[in-house]
Design a protein that fits this description.
Elements lengths: L8 H8 L5 E7 L8 E7 L17 H14 L2 E7 L1 H7 L1 H14 L7 E5 L10 E4 L2 H4 L1 H24 L5 H4 L5 H10 L12 H7 L1
Parallel strand pairs: 1-4, 4-5
Antiparallel strand pairs: 1-2, 2-3
Helix pairs in contact: 2-6, 3-4
């Protein structure tokens, strides 16, 4: 995937329309076999441009860490929400992702008066929101949220690897790589694996 810097065009237009705190929201970990789904919400400072912010999937890990530090330092507000594997299994990954995004938004201080979401509509928010298709590539606030969510989740998976190194979470971060599938075949599922992904995710990645 090519790297395209996200722009502030949409946020700037909304601020000109009277929306002061415009939050971008994104999540990571939907397609993983293990670990939580993590969402972030970020309100970027209009006068503190952070060069290089773009879709987290297009940024090398070391640079993501650097951008993360800049984002959390200079943002007006940022927050993270998540849903763990047991909640994912209980309500399904889509609903769990929406809950994680809602939790992130509602932890922002101050609360935003507009929310921009990468393609989704978050239920039960009191403030207006807009779904932006390919938002993590088009909108700087959503791209910043994707970086915060990705770095947060990757660090959690490295920590989980420290508790149980059999699965290689530090390398594949819970995604269904060949290494991960082989480890599951050998050791079975751990406490942090999503039981509802036992058949469908493995089949889809092997097929």
């Amino acid at each position: 995937m090519s790297r395209v810097p996200a722009t502030r065009t949409l946020e700037n237009a909304l601020r000109r329309a009277g929306f002061v705190h415009v939050a971008g929201v994104d999540e990571v970990g939907r397609g993983c076999l293990a670990g939580p789904v993590v969402a972030a919400a970020v309100v970027l400072h209009p006068d503190r441009h952070i060069p290089g912010v773009c879709d987290s999937k297009t940024v090398p890990a070391a640079e993501r860490d650097e951008l993360y530090d800049l984002i959390v330092r200079d943002a007006v507000a940022w927050a993270v929400g998540e849903a763990d594997p047991s909640e994912i299994d209980l309500i399904n990954i889509h609903q769990a992702s929406l809950r994680a995004m809602q939790r992130a938004v509602l932890q922002l201080v101050p609360l935003p008066d507009m929310v921009l979401v990468d393609a989704f509509h978050i239920p039960d928010l009191s403030m207006p929101q807009r779904g932006v298709v390919h938002g993590d590539r088009r909108c700087s606030a959503i791209a910043a949220a994707s970086i915060v969510a990705k770095v947060t989740r990757d660090r959690q998976m490295v920590e989980l690897h420290g508790h149980d190194p059999r699965y290689g979470f530090d390398r594949h971060k819970g995604y269904a790589t060949a290494e991960h599938r082989d480890a599951v075949a050998k050791f079975g599922y751990s406490a942090v694996h999503r039981r509802s992904f036992r058949v469908s995710a493995l089949f889809d990645t092997i097929a």
